Amino acid sequence: MLGFFVFYSGCSSLRDLIEISGQTMGTTYTIKIISSHSNIGCNELKFGIDSVLENVNRQMSTWDSNSEISILNQNESILPILVSTEFYNIVEMAQSISVQTGGIFDITIYELMSLWGFGPAPKNGVPNLDDINQVLISIGYEKIILSQNHIQKTNSKIKLDLNAIAKGYGVDQVFKWINSQGYSELFVEIGGEVKCSGRNQYNKYWSIGIENPTGGNKHNQIFAAIIYSDGGAVATSGNYRNFVNINGEILGHTINPKTGYPIQTDVLSVTVLSDLCMVADAWATALMVMDYDTGLKMVNENHDIKAIWILNNKDGSRRLARSDGAKVEDSIYEIIP
After folding, report:
1. pTM here?
2. Is there a domain that residue 297 lies in?
3. Is the distance from CB of 231 to CB of 185 less than 8 angstroms?
């Protein structure tokens, strides 16, 4: 379901702002566009954005039994399966990030997520070791083969889950479409994942808040820090946003595909900056599975991304850490070197 609310405001600033907001992918979105001389108006923008988001959902929603990913998951053939070019490209990007992270990022975790109570067909109760080991047999990015718009499963039980990259991809697609209509200064956000360019209505850098994880000694603060940007993408992952209560035990949604268990580290959230939002989205998920030192080393060796961590101290306080080149403003926590 997609819903839209369009606002056109001529503020006291020198530039007019078009704002479109609504719901998609089980979350909300906000789009801000600096008005310019374009042949397309608000109604056409609304319809175009609607079409882009519906197309993304038709490709990647595991909640839609008729989506491209659901049809692929239901197909237990081990022969190559033809998919759309768009779907193939996003799986190819996911596989590339899987290689770079040594399998910490893995889109074959559908059954594992369901086992822990996440996804459209969750199981009940805490899974036992035998259940986890059985599911792990059909998990592993190296168990799918990509070739010329075909995806081949080497295990018929493999099912894909693109939720860790889908929102970022949706942001990229919406941004690309609006840009193609003649708008060069815009801000696109879906569920906290952002891509922007140019300046805002006040002719200043776009400001992006890093959400303050729930709990802690500064729980009354909404944002932990602010990023200012005139271009690029930002995505954040954190266990505090999505969790499941199993027999009174609260478990975060970030599952280690290597062990089959939810991760337990001092990392509360990771924010990743990149040119593409789907890259930032995927890396934010991967870095949540790693401890801070491992993640920092990996990010500093990758010129395509930068990262910002919120870490938990043993005494309950928090600190903020950055990779090389990552800049933040107005942090409420101590920034460590």
Report:
1. 0.89
2. no
3. no
Does any domain span residue 284?
no
Of 133, 144, 165, the closest CA to residue 260 belongs to 133
Indicate the residue type of 108: T
In the chain, the largest separation of any two C-alpha atoms, in whole Å, equals 64
Read off the pLDDT of residues 264-293 as tens digits, 9 standing for 90 and up: 788 999 999 999 999 999 999 999 999 999
Tokens representing 4 are 């839209």
Band (5; pLDDT cuts 50, 70, 90): very low
- 282 occurs within a structural domain: no
The pLDDT value recorded for residue 2 is: 36
In the chain, which residue ranges form alpha helices assigned H by DSSP? 42-60, 68-74, 85-100, 110-115, 129-136, 163-180, 277-289, 292-300
Percent of the chain scoring above 90 in pLDDT: 70
Show the domain range for 98.
Answer: 70-161
The residue to which tokens 């193939």 are assigned: 88
Question: 224-239 pLDDT, tens per residue?
Answer: 999 999 999 999 998 6
- Compute, in degrees rounded to 10, the torsion defined by CA atoms 61, 64, 69, 72: 170
Pairing of strands 193-197, 150-153: unpaired
Determine the residue type at 11: C
Cα angle at 55 between 288 and 286, to 5 degrees? 10
How far apart are the C-alpha atoms of 151 and 72, rounded to whole Å?
9
Per the structure, the count of domains in the chain is 1
Assess if residue 89 is contained within a domain.
yes
Measured in whole angstroms, how far is the alpha carbon of residue 131 from the centre of its chain? Answer: 28
What is the arithmetic mean of pLDDT over 308-323?
92
Which pLDDT value is given to residue 239? 66
- Any bridge partners for residue 206, and if so which? 229
**CATH number of the domain bearing residue 89:** 1.10.3980.10
**Separation CA 319–CA 311 (nearest Å):** 5
Q: Quote the percentage of the chain above a pLDDT of 70.
A: 88
